[in-house]
Design a protein that fits this description.
By secondary structure, the chain is an alpha/beta fold. The chain has a single domain, classed as 3-Layer(aba) Sandwich (Rossmann fold). Helix 5 links the parallel strand 10 and strand 11. It is globular and about 60 Å long. About 35% of the residues are buried.
Length: about 210
């Protein structure tokens, strides 16, 4: 799992506990998720390239830095939307695309139903957002779609990952870094992460 980075600190550990608790209300769930997303964004930003620019302070001209290339966020619908706000606050100039994938509950395979992204995929760093990396089928499919359309600098951000999903990403897309706040034990017999936190989309949007 050379491509895996587990982002942890005491605040993340606390907030993961909030997310796991079945009694956590929607507004509490969203708040904890957003705080974790900030930490994920900061960790991922360590891989960003910068260029030196001049900046004029009230006293003199000094050296500053600008992030280059552009950043494109691609949430996997619908649960990935829950991570967008925090990343946008940290990278306000980022553009946002969307990939709609739904899991066939019988085969567990992803089915595409929506795709739209900015045109600058080939010249941007593309961060795919999806709270759960379970079987890895949806994530792998999303990256395949993006590669087919020219993306070549790609990163994956998730809240919770299962070893099976990380292994599939390592096999299908070994060059893509995977960031997560927790590597859980395994998938259960219906493809959900355990101990996990349930369905991230339903718990975020209150559609249980």
């Amino acid at each position: 799992m050379k491509n895996l980075t587990i982002v942890q600190n005491p605040l993340i550990l606390r907030d993961i506990t909030y997310l796991r608790n079945h009694e956590t209300r929607e507004y509490q769930f969203r708040a904890a998720l957003k705080r974790i997303a900030y930490s994920l964004c900061i960790e991922i930003s360590k891989s960003f390239k910068t260029e030196v620019i001049d900046v004029e302070t009230p006293l003199e001209i000094t050296e500053g830095h600008r992030i280059k290339p552009e950043i494109i966020l691609v949430p996997v619908l619908r649960a990935g939307l829950s991570l967008v706000d925090a990343f946008i606050e940290m990278i306000p100039y980022a553009k946002v695309g969307h990939i709609g994938l739904q899991r066939n509950e019988e085969t567990l395979e992803p089915v595409e139903y929506y795709y739209k992204t900015p045109k600058e995929l080939s010249t941007s760093k593309v961060i795919v957002l999806d709270p759960m990396l379970a079987t890895g089928g949806s994530a792998s499919a999303a990256f395949s779609f993006l590669k087919q359309r020219g993306a070549n600098d790609l990163v994956f951000a998730s809240l919770i990952a299962a070893p099976e999903g990380v292994e599939k990403m390592s096999k299908d897309h070994p060059e893509i870094p995977v960031y997560t706040a927790s590597l859980d034990r395994q998938l259960n017999d219906v493809g959900y992460i355990v101990p996990g936190l349930g369905d991230a989309g339903d718990r975020t949007f209150g559609t249980l």
